[in-house]
Structure formats: structure tokens, C-alpha cells
Amino acid sequence: MAEVITIDYRPRPQSIAYHERTQRWSCSVAHRRFGKTVREINELVKAAVTCGKPNPRFAYLAPYYAQAKAIAWDYLKQYSRPLQAKPPMESELSVELVNGARIRLFGADNPDALRGLYLDGVVLDEYGDMRPTVWGEIIRPLLADRQGWASFIGTPKGKNHFHALAQMAKDSPDWFYQELKASETGIILASELDDARRQMTPEQYAQEFECAFDVPALGAIYAAEIAQTKVDGRIAAVPYDRAALVHTAWDLGVGDDTCIWFWQQVGREVHLIDYYANRGQPVTHYLSVLGQRGYDYGRHFVPHDAEARERWSAVTMTQVAEEQGYRMEVLAREDVEQGINAVRMMFSRCWFDEKKCADGLDALMNYRREYAEKLGQFKPTPLHDWASHGADAFRYLAMALEKATDRPAVKFDTSSFASEFA
């Protein structure tokens, strides 16, 4: 008789359908304190031990590596303990099970740690807090050859990429979709919800407990400006105007993203026609992107740290750019709040190309101040995460705007000089 191993986990009634789903893809929008991390860890353990493939590999991805360790590592060790083949590996946050399967925790702040791996299944917890490119550029290819599955779960934070994914999943038969509101699950006592409703703003309560996407992310810095931009219809098709120069504003990253906004000034309007972001690439890569776009360029603005030496060479970013034929103008260091105010004053003039600037708009929508739970207030400085880089580049654009006014080139016709002074 085969040995029966019991895992000390009793799924909540709302999670039974999830554990029994047959779809490869899953999206769950869950209220706070639903118990999603416990659910997802147990789903990974179940999938890992029942997987019939050789050397199965599974992963749990949180927005930050430190977050994955803090909220999921103890649960993974606890629920996988009866099935562990050897002690957990603390150095890489992984466990190996008796069938050779491995489950490992990762952070989306270092997605390159996943490159070169393969996965049979992955959980993306709080997907809305991750940069949008993590899924398409890093995770999805890891599932291809093994036809692995993916589960996205999180609490709303405005209409970001998690919202877009949830809308798509809701309408697709290929996806398992759940929306778990506190008023419907019964997990949190009604008296506790009533107390929370009294102590939170309506927007906070709707987002955290009622899975509302149609409120701005908590602490969103440009929430009002973006909302007005949508109302005005200024997120649309914004074509490249060949009669105007294209200027760029950059935020430079070494371990973080490097982001570039491409804009044109057409009268008093600021046309955001393109956006590009990447990470881990030398300056020459981004300069090649400028060339590939084929725009007629005006001026290029970079932050003060452009004068620092590149880690790949002994020269600065501005020197490398000049060798490639691009003259970069270095902006002076300015107060962040002054820059944010400059953006707010500029926003009413901005038109965004809805396709080419989609990732940049995601960054602006998710640029926010971090909420300090113990203090019960937002911290004064913006949160430094994936969204802050695109927002910083946009702040540099606002700072450079008056300097980038198109000026016609002055040309002299010298043909008459020859006869006059012959």
C-alpha cells in the first residue's frame, strides 16, 4: 500500500474551485487578508509533487526578493516539510521534494535571476506591483518548452497592467478567473469591515477590500492629472509630425531601468509620441534605439548622473553619446518635489500615443508615495520601484521643456556676396 502523506492545509471554500481548475492560466483579484500567499504556496506544493514530468521546477515570484522571503519562505518550508527530500536551501530560498521537484522563491526586482531556467508552473503574487515587462520578456518564455502554467494574483492598485490582465482573463474561456471581495467571502467579520470603513477613505476601502480597480492606486502622485487626460481624450493615436523636431528625456539606470520619452512640441501642445525602457544594457544600445526610430532629432536631455563613468568603460555616458553623434545636455540636480510640480503644470498640454507610450503611461499611473502603516500616513518621498524610472524621465522632460523649444536653423545665402565683393 502506498504511503499517504497529509499536508496540514485546509483550503477555504472560495479556493476549492481554484485548486481544481483545469485551465493553464489563472487570475485572481483578492481582498486583503484573504490568505492568498498560503493558498498559492500550497498550490505550488500540490503541483510539484503530482507533476509527472522529469525534474519539475516551480517558482513563486513576489515584487521584491526580500518580500518573497518575508511573506512566503516560512510557509513554503512549513507546508512542504512532509515531502522534503533534504533540508531547505536558505541561500537560494528553495526546497527539493522527494520526487525531485524544486520550488524556489524569486523577486521581480531581479528578474534576470530567472533567465536560463525552465518552469512547469509559476505564481506571480501582487503582479500589479511588478514592472509590466517581467511577464512577457522573462517569465512566459520559461514556460514554453514544458507547457507550464501561471497564476496571477493580487489586490487592485488602479487601472494598471494587472487590471488589463484581469479584464482579459474575465472574458477568456482559456483562463480561470476569480474576484474575491471581502463583502462576499465572509472571511473578515462584518464588524471588522465596518470599523475599517470608518477609518479608511472610501477609495482606500473600495480598493483594499472590495477589489475596485476604478480608483487610483493609493498614494498615486499623478492620479488626478491622468484621469483628466483620459476625460479629455488626450490618450489616443499621436503620429510623428515630420515638420517638428523630436526631443528626448532620459532616466539612466545601472541595475535599474533606463527610460526614454520621445516628444515633440506642436504649438503649445506636448506630443508624447514614443517611449522606450530596458535594463542591463550599455549606452550604445539605447543610442542604437534612437537611430532605429528614424526621427529627426532636436535635443537630448539627461540627468546629472550622466557624467558618471559607465561600468563597462572608463568614459561617461555623454562622451559615449558624443562619439556616436548625439550631444547630450545634462540637467542640473533639482528638488524632486519641484520636478513633480513642473509635471503637474505641464500635464494639461500633453497628448500621449496610446500604443507607443503604453508602458510609460503605466509607469506614470503607478508612480506613488509609499504608505507607512505604523504612522498611518504616506511617506514624503516617492516609492522607488519599477514605475519611478519612467516617472523620473518624465520629470526631467518637464524640467527641460522650456529649453527644448524648436528653433529654426539660421542659414545664410552667400551667393550674392561673391559678385558684390569680387
Structure overview:
The chain is of the alpha/beta class and 422 residues long. It has two domains: 13-210, Rossmann fold; 223-404, Nucleotidyltransferase, domain 5 (2-Layer Sandwich). It has helices at residues 13-19, 36-50, 65-80, 133-143, 161-170, 182-185, 190-199, 202-210, 223-232, 283-293, 317-323, 336-346, 358-366, 386-400, 415-420; strands at residues 25-30, 57-62, 94-96, 102-107, 121-125, 149-154, 175-180, 235-236, 246-251, 257-266, 269-279, 297-302, 328-330, 350-353, 369-372, 377-382. The strands form three sheets. It has a seven-stranded mixed sheet with strand order 3-4-2-5-6-1-7, sandwiched between helices. It has a seven-stranded mixed sheet with strand order 8-14-11-10-9-12-13. A hairpin with a 2-residue loop joins strand 10 and strand 11. Helix 12 crosses helix 14 (386-400) and helix 13 packs across helix 14. The longest helix is centred in the first third of the chain and has 16 residues, at 65-80. The termini are far apart.
